[in-house]
Amino acid sequence: MPGLVVNRVAPGFLGDVLSSFPEGLVVVSGSAGKSTTTKMLVAVLTAHGKRVFTNPSTANITQGLTSALLERASLTGRIDADLAVLEMDEGHGARLADRFRARLVLLTNVMTDQIDRFHDAQKVQAMLGRIASRASDAVVLNGDDALLARLAPPAAVVPYGVTEGVLTAAPRGLGYAETTPTRVQDGTRVTAVTGRKAELLVRGEPMTVRLPARGVHYAVDAAGAVAAAEQLLGDAFDARVAADALAVMSPVFGRGEVTTVRGQEVEFVLVQNPASFQLNVDELDEGLDQVMVAMGSDVRDPSYFWPVDASRIGRALIVSGSKADEIALQLLYQGVEVERIEPDLGAALDAFLALPAPARGIKTIVFTADSMRRTRSHLGLAT
Fold first, then answer.
1. Which pLDDT score, from 0 to 100, does residue 222 have?
2. Where do the Mur ligase central domain residues begin and end (predicted)?
3. What are the phi and psi torsion angles at 251 (to 5°)?
4. Does one domain contain both 115 and 259?
């Protein structure tokens, strides 16, 4: 609400504040991985002594960005920080492009995501191209994404990516695991991924990083963050400092986050599009004893997720959310045992958490964005 009001009465506020940071503005955008990549980049820059303003709540649309700035701005409209690193929604970032000038833009990928807003990949490519056009120093982009690789922004292009072996060894799925063989021969590359550990090649030197969650997609996010940090810091970049910062970074809420709720350890797994659903499900431990799945109103057309093979879940004790029947049907067709369908998310969460501790693994909740927000609200967790 504060952002909506300020944008109405002072439409120049957002652009003015974004232009006020001494070391400039960094914009992170793309279909998926924005929140994690932003948090990784902020962690690395902060560890190098930079004072960074960011939007940690992942409020990445116009009013959310404005509200985040209002929280820190002085009466003169300035924020005490060296630079800003902001996650921006693809659509809102493109509409805001005329109101900011970025020192660096980081683009993660183009995927089929939010089909009610972004109906085709070329539309997303065009929006990201608009954002990239505002970079003055460099555009750091995922060179394994064919649509991003075709962009020709006025600033220098710095690609990051993965080696062919990593793609071959990646979990079966969509998105990253189906990209064309990498064209990225220099820059920052992912050379191996094992669980929460990834091997990168930075400036031709090996670098081991601990990831906040399991999966090759998180390793790609780390590569992007490291590549951007290297560009921003220049000779001051220290790979050891960067690795140490990533090792202690907690996940962005819902992205492989493990927390204690009502005395029980729970892992939250957020799935937002077919690619993230497949990759995250493929990383689940086999034979988990207690899994809950929740799909909310953010999924306008549940058939969107039908390309995902969710059979690794094995057994879902409770399926919930406003689209509980639809996701339960998909799970059943894919051989997953569904013990109970409870559309009332609050009742489902209470029942799931009231169960004794699992015999294998930890309690795991797989949910879409709407159910994630409602879950955190019901459980009194910060968002």
1. 96
2. 28-229
3. -65, 155
4. no
